[in-house]
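Why do we care about 3D structure at all? Because function follows from shape, and shape follows, mostly, from sequence. That is the central idea of this module. The next example makes it concrete: a single protein chain, its amino acid sequence, and then its structure expressed as tokens.
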Amino acid sequence: MREMAVNFCVSCGHSMEARTIDGVERKVCTSCGNVHWGNYSIGVGALVFYDQKILLVRRAQEPGTGKWTSEHSQRVYCV
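And the structure:
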């Protein structure tokens, strides 16, 4: 299946242009700077608790390079 071209910003509707970010060509809005990050993949996450503390990770890629996170963005379900 071929990926659809992103020509207009999903945030403001202005045109997109190609820019290199972290060595990868991405589409960026010429007006608001919104970046289309491209191919998304399914992932799995977990919160690790130890001694009443939560394990955090530091992001290596944009968005948020260098920031601390728990790396979850969806609801957490306990099974």
